[in-house]
Amino acid sequence: MSTRNQYKSYLKRWSNFCQINNISSNVSINDVLRFLFELYNTGIGYSSINTARSALSLILPSFDGQTIGNHPLINRFVKGVFRLRPPAPRYNYTWDVNLLLKLFEDWPTNNNLSILHLTVKLTALLAIITAQRVQGINSIDINNIEYDNGVMVVKIDKILKTSRPGSLQPFYRFPPYQIEKLCIAKTIIDYLNVTYNYRQHSQLLLSIERPFKPVSNQTVSRWLKNCLDLAGINTNIFKAHSFRGASTSKT
Q1: Helix (H) or strand (E) holding 135
Q2: What 3-state class would DSSP assign to 152?
Q3: Is residue 243 part of a domain?
Q4: Distances in Å between the alpha carbon of 178 and those of 146, 174, 187, 226, 229?
Q5: What DSSP character marks residue 180?
Q6: Which domain range does residue 17 map to?
Q7: Consecutive sets of 10 residues in the chain, 251 residues long: mean pLDDT of each?
Q8: Is residue 212 part of a domain?
Q9: How far from 219 is each of 52, 116, 216, 233, 241, CA to CA, in Å?
């Protein structure tokens, strides 16, 4: 869920809270604290409470010369939530990357794969090797793929969710790999060769059916999930867009 959608959710809850409690224009700091406390009682943790605080800071006036986000009472409340319900890791499980790599080794060579199988294989290898989110994988542009002394260089120049001021954009070097079926550089080349005749867009990943347009992040997520299902990995325990696996000596 995007930050904007998260804000909308809490602003809607705030509106309902105000209606139920007959709060109109005269909002007090105690009203805000009651609202946050009610959210806390629903079982949500620090991160969600902090998001709700940020959402309210956009629409409410200052109290005692302080914004909602900086008010001492609100800060004390949020710090208390942090102590009682500290942020937990989003994912507390891993899966065996070898299962997926074994699947690709059992498949025919790239030249004998359908466009669907080649596409999902490329997507999965990119996810494993770059550890990028779906957005990052889907931001690769073929104009940013080059060679440097026989090593494929891939740059991502789009602003991603993980981009920060002063930090470098993602940059990857893919040398040739001895197991050809698992070589990401060769898979990219084979994919570009297959899509060359109908490619009209520079985004690397294209749909597998006409009009062969750039795909959405949701489509990439679905490809990854389907690929994991084929490898016999239980995808019910995690969201495909994370695509984080256990380490393996083959990568």
Answers
A1: helix 134-137
A2: strand
A3: no
A4: 20, 12, 13, 27, 26
A5: G
A6: 3-84
A7: 77 94 89 95 92 92 87 94 84 79 96 95 95 92 94 89 76 94 97 96 95 94 91 64 39 33
A8: yes
A9: 30, 12, 5, 19, 10
